[in-house]
Amino acid sequence: xxxxxxxxxxxxxxxxxxxxxxxxxxxxxxxxxxxxxxxxxxxxxxxxxxxxxxxxxxxxxxxxxxxxxxxxxxxxxxxxxxxxxxxxxxxxxxxxxxxxxxxxxxxxxxxxxxxxxxxxxxxxxxxxxxxxxxxxxxxxxxxxxxxxxxxxxxxxxxxxxxxxxxxxxxxxxxxxxxxxxxxxxxxxxxxxxxxxxxxxxxxxxxxxxxxxxxxxxxxxxxxxxxxxxxxxxxxxxxxxxxxxxxxxxxxxxxxxxxxxxxxxxxxxxxxxxxxxxxx
Length: 279
Fold this sequence. Notes:
- The protein is of the alpha/beta class and 279 residues long.
- It has two domains: 1-113, lambda repressor-like DNA-binding domains (434 Repressor (Amino-terminal Domain), Orthogonal Bundle); 116-267, Trna Endonuclease, Chain: A, domain 1 (3-Layer(aba) Sandwich).
- The chain is 43% helix and 19% strand.
- The protein is built from ten helices and eight strands.
- It has helices at 2-14, 30-57, 61-68, 72-80, 87-96, 116-128, 173-187, 215-223, 225-231, 236-244, and strands at residues 99-101, 105-107, 134-141, 147-155, 160-167, 204-212, 254-261, 264-267.
- The strands form two sheets. It has a six-stranded mixed beta sheet with strand order 3-4-5-6-7-8, sandwiched between helices. Strands 1-2 form a two-stranded antiparallel ribbon.
- α3 packs across α5 (87-96).
- The chain is elongated and about 75 Å long.
């Protein structure tokens, strides 16, 4: 009897398995499909906003993730839109970037996380500026874009306004150029500069890129020389003389190099060695 039972069990094990189809759920409604698509787009938009603000602040994913109390891998996934971050996590990221989280992240008046090398470069430039330049540090702009300009220089006698951005490392050249133009346009809707135009000719607005002289940045300037020249056509030596002297006219949008070595920060008198841009 026991032998026959084992044989039956063995035959049952060899029997084919019939899998019944799972019942299909109800079709998704148009609203559900649209909501799912909108949610994916929202995640990507939030991630792009975080990445843009982080790069504009000049901080790495590692540093922002540490400030927000998450891993660098999670921060990378959030920026790519691959995951749905919790509201608390997005609030922490927004606060670390000096902004606030609603349905998107708006930059605030100041950014707590800043590249310390950028600060030293700006300090070196401010120390050498001629007194004819009025200085406005950390200038917020709101329309048509929101953000903070590192430094705005204003020569009221010449009617020149220079929007200065300091970068220790250029991660995305096209973003730098786009933001320079957009912030310069937004600046003209911001007082007190608007008051300076009363009774005078319209202000001329141009850009200044204060760039650290590193091998990576010099290679980038060589590789995309034509793009750099189109965005910053001014001669570097003339720009430095204009910034540091009382009479030299401003040459227009320019690239100025800064050397940061062993704690010493120096504004170079001309173009960096090996870089043709600005010569």
